[in-house]
Design a protein that fits this description.
four-stranded antiparallel sheet, Jelly Rolls, mainly beta
């Protein structure tokens, strides 16, 4: 499939987001692939910002098949600049999770994903 100028490569009907608001500095699950989905979920991005407009940092942990992987530890982002993590090939399956830990409790954002899944 060749994308035309201004055209999306993925149909927008398959693209979804899951919002989150971190109210703690403890590790928090921000997305879990629902049980019963087969075929995987393609994670496209994680976007976050500190709502106080101050600098902050995030640690990103992804658990795949029960094994935890740290993708970024205390990655800093400046005041009034969003944290952005884009993925091209992160595929999660049912029960896999994305967790974030913030340095302060005023971080809001979303996980963007494409469901390549069908409910069983």
């Amino acid at each position: 499939m060749v994308a035309q100028s201004g055209a999306a490569v993925f149909p927008s009907a398959n693209y979804e987001t899951e919002g989150f608001s971190l109210g703690t500095t403890n590790e928090t699950t921000v997305y879990t692939v629902p049980v019963g989905f087969e075929g995987g979920v393609f994670i496209t991005e994680i976007i976050a910002a500190d709502q106080d407009g101050t600098a902050n940092s995030l640690t990103l942990k992804v658990t795949i098949d029960g094994t935890a992987y740290i993708f970024g530890k205390a990655e800093a982002f400046a005041a009034n600049v969003p944290y952005e993590r884009h993925f091209t090939s992160l595929v999660l399956n049912e029960g896999d999770t994305i967790k974030l830990t913030a340095a302060s409790i005023t971080v809001d954002g979303y996980v963007g994903f494409i469901q390549n899944a069908r409910e069983s």
